[in-house]
Specification:
The protein is an alpha+beta fold. It has 4 domains: 117 residues, Orthogonal Bundle (Butyryl-Coa Dehydrogenase, subunit A, domain 1); 108 residues, Butyryl-CoA Dehydrogenase, subunit A, domain 2 (Beta Barrel); 154 residues, Butyryl-CoA Dehydrogenase, subunit A, domain 3 (Up-down Bundle); 170 residues, Butyryl-CoA Dehydrogenase, subunit A, domain 3 (Up-down Bundle), CATH 1.20.140. It contains 19 helices and 10 strands. The strands form 2 sheets. Strands 1, 2, 3, 4, 5, 6, 7 and 8 form an 8-stranded mixed β-sheet that branches. Strands 9-10 form a two-stranded antiparallel sheet. Helix 8 packs antiparallel against helix 12 and helix 11 packs across helix 16. It starts with 33 loop residues before the first helix and ends in a 5-residue tail after the last helix.
Amino acid sequence: MTTGTNTTTALRGAEWLIRESLPADTYIPEDFNEEQRMVLQLCHDFLKAEIHPLIERIEKLEPGLMSSLMEKAGEQGLLGASIPEEFEGLGKDFITSTIVNEGLGGGHSFSVAVAAHTGIGTLPILYFGTPEQKSRYIPKLASGTWKGAYGLTEPNSGSDALSAKTTAKLSEDGTHYILNGQKCWITNGGFADVYTVFAKIDGDKFTAFIVERGMEGFTQGPEEDKMGIKGSSTVQLYFQDCKVPVGNVLGEIGKGHVIAFNILNIGRLKLCAATLGGAKATMDVNINYANTREQFKRTIASFGAIQQKLAETAIRIWVSESALYRSAMWVEEKERSLLAEGKPFNEALLGAAEEYAVECAILKVYGSEMLDYVVDEGVQIHGGNGFSAEYAISRAYRDSRINRIYEGTNEINRLLTVDMILKRAMKGRLDLMGPAMAVQKELMSIPDFGSGDEAPFAVERKLVTNMKKALLMVAGGAVQKLMMQLEHEQEILMNIADMGIEIFHAESALLRAMKLTDRNGAAAAALATDITRAYLYDAADRVNKSGKDAINAFASGDEQRMMLLGLKRFTKAEPFNIKDARRRIASRLIADGRYTF
């Protein structure tokens, strides 16, 4: 991993595990163009002017309020950023649409409503609809005059979506499908105008349908009383001999899973963007409180324990942001490549999202857990006041928790991460065998104690490379030992996933710091360097713990001892004064009075 010019082609999905990445090839937030920075500011201004002053009314589900706010967002173009101009959208690139999700991420329940509308509420029709369906619905969804929702989950089918019980049967005259069943936890369900609903035709052909409010036999339940995101509409949907025109079948009959799973890939990346925006907004609240709250005749921001919390939350935000936009550019580049090959826009973006489905799952897990960490430490910084509903941090804490559940629980996403990587290896899409065998050979050789490389970030580059070897060693050992039984060892799979999540984020942060150093010089990039080194120092220990737990679960005897020694070698970090690094990071936060990294 050396600095220099762009000499490599874009990595394929999960290829970062086995191929070198260069800073020059890596997209970072500092690469935003002027228009993208203006879009981000527009989102922040919209929240400040339209959402934050009404937050209490939104929380009380005031009738008509959320719908009117979404229409205002539509007037600003915030609902149609990624929709092609032919459907009255703005036709912006994938990076810009991701920026919108981040920019609106600090809007609490409003953010959830918008994300559901622009994502699962709109994209199924945009990507899988017929020309007639697109022209009928997409312009209305882009403007916000119609709101969208998505009906997949049922009382007895959450993560196992294909076990849905809602049925569809063709009417005797062949003009309608008759739907019977129910859906639950439907975001925007209480006010949406159009819904993508999944049902099984004749009890087995899993299919998507476009259902409009007001269709005969379609009703909804009362609003759910939720732990958090109280201002977002969440209801159950009921279908009792609901008549849906045959022209409202979405996509191919029996191929509803293609819609459901492809939409989730994009949704996971966009959810990470929303958690990033929420985390940055929460940081501003935390820093402001620490700067104004006094104890023992000093602001609490002057205490080391508080500075550690401010710094560590900022580190995780910066690292999450680094991985998010690195991945978003990969998706955008793949989309452009597929368009150049003559693919229609919908197939291009879906193909790009599928290519980077591993990264989308990783981002969703890390982003949601990062936000949970930020709000939890925020409550602690606020002390007793953090437990009071009068303080904004209390709402942020409650609202955050859902992110680890929807778009696939974090446990499901961890299992999917490893499953997708192994399947790509078996299909020849990802060459894991060669690198894994090389690591096994290295384990039997005399350790390399370094070549004395004094290039910038040489120590950090070597650590990231070694952590990848640790992952290949553990995953390869588990596959060889357990074979087909590995799929039943979920704890081991999640250990391996956690190693991958840490490594991907550590490398993304390192590449960003290296690029900033190349661009601006070491002094200007000192903060990025502190953040990166602090994260790597801790990430090595976390990778070691996950690897050790996995090895001890499947290996024994000499094999176990050899692998544990290898793991120790591959996760050894150089001594680093992380306390001082965190203090430098915290000093910048305290001086700026908000998150400005």
